[in-house]
Amino acid sequence: MPIYEFRCKNCGETFEELYNNGDSLPTKCPKCGGELVRVYSGSVGLS
């Protein structure tokens, strides 16, 4: 299951969410209700 990172345009809060394929992605910040943007990481860790 992928983990997505989001940042709020209003308050700047960042958080990660674990999602199954088919789940809808969040659109509102859980802290302030502001609009979210998905953050794309530049690096991937492998173990």
TrEMBL record:
Residues 1-41 form the Putative regulatory protein FmdB zinc ribbon domain. It comes from the Bacteria. InterPro entries: Regulatory_FmdB_Zinc_ribbon. Gene3D superfamilies: RNA polymerase ii, chain L. Coiled coil: none annotated. Pfam families: Zn_ribbon_8. This is Zinc ribbon domain-containing protein. It comes from candidate division WOR-3 bacterium. The lineage of its organism: Bacteria, Bacteria division WOR-3.
